Structures are given as structure tokens and as C-alpha cells.
Amino acid sequence: AGTTRDLIEIAFDLGGYPASLIDTAGLREAGDAVEAEGIRRARERARAADLRLLVCDAREWPQLPAEIGEANGRGALVVANKVDLAPALGAGALDGDGSAYAVSAKTGAGIAALLQALEAQVVALSELGETPALTRARHRHALEDCCAALDGFIADRRDPVLAAEAVRLAARALGRITGRVDVEDVLDRVFAEFCIGK
């Protein structure tokens, strides 16, 4: 079968946390330029991901652990799919440390255990226990705006007027997350998103 260069991305809820699942090209030696581009994109997205799933064919499981260990790097979960075609393997966790799972995308076997492991990893990554850190893209953008304003404060701290403006912008950006906004913010939003006229 061929390899696509495209990344297939879906958004879903993972135990109350917004998550994106991105299916990429498989990682292997490229046979042509199209396949090489797909693999390049896959590696790029894997480097940026908070969690990674390394999916392999369950029928090849005995031969894979050494290769997977090298590719695993910073703690990806290994998923041996098609366990329905390798019944001796059994669905669910494959090891004691919870880093490998056997599943069947066709029958659903082992999926619940995998999702539970993913939820546990997301909770550990958030470091806030049960409360998600940032749940909306607009919150992330507001936090980025706040950081940029604070960088401006550091750069302009010798000029009190510029420093004060940078602090005001940082506070305004945080207010967009916490819900503290002023009338000016509301009007800016209304006129930016709605067409008001005759």
C-alpha cells in the first residue's frame, strides 16, 4: 500500500481534556520523494507532540521491541494493533509499566485500557490533577499575548511609560482568560465579529 503525505487530524475529548489525534505516514526508509515528504512531516509533528503513539502490527510484535525502543525516545505508548489476528498476544497492557498495549481497531478490544492510559498521561502532563490548564485555543493565544507583553516590559523597563503599557497589555491578556474584561474589550469583540449596519 502507498504512503500519504497528508496528516489526518481529529479533535476529541480525552477524559475532559481537549486533544488532537494526528495520523501520520509510517516511519521507515522512504521509497520515493512523496513517501519521504510524508515521513518528514510525521517526524516534525512527533517532535511537537505532547504524547506519541507508535502503532505496529500485533502479528509482528515479537520482533519489534528493539526497534520500538530506539524510536520510542521520550515515552511514547506502543500500540500493537490487529490483536484480533494475533489472539495469543491478548488485548490490553503488554508490559508491567503500561507503555505498550495490544488493541484491535476492528473489534475494539483493548481500546478502553489504551484510553485509560492516555488519560493518565494527560493528567500527569497537566500537573494540575483534575483541572485542565488551558482548554481553549483562545486561552492559549491570550497567554501568548501576555508573555509577549511581559517580554516587552523586560525590554522597556527603563522607560516607565512603556513599561506600564506593557504591564497593562499583559493584565488585559490575562483578563481574557480569567473573565475580567472591560467595556472596551467587549465592544472591540462585537465590532470585529459582527456586521452592524443598516
Annotate the secondary structure layout.
Blueprint: E1 8-14, E2 17-23, H1 33-48, E3 53-57, H2 65-72, E4 77-81, E5 92-93, E6 100-102, H3 111-126, H4 137-155, H5 160-178, H6 183-193
Parallel strand pairs: 3-4, 4-6
Antiparallel strand pairs: 1-2, 5-6
Helix pairs in contact: 4-5
Q: Could you name the key traits of this structure?
A:
two-stranded antiparallel sheet; Rossmann fold; 4-stranded mixed beta sheet; elongated; 6 helices; 198 residues; 45% helix; alpha/beta
Structural class: alpha/beta
Give the topology string: H per helix, E per strand: EEHEHEEEHHHH
Helix residue percentage:
40-55%
Q: State the helix count.
A: 6
Query: What coarse outline follows from CA principal-axis ratios?
Result: elongated
The CATH homologous superfamily of the largest domain:
P-loop containing nucleotide triphosphate hydrolases
**Major sheet: arrangement of strands:** 3-4-6-5
Number of domains: 2
Low-confidence stretches: none
Integer-rounded radius of gyration: 23 Å
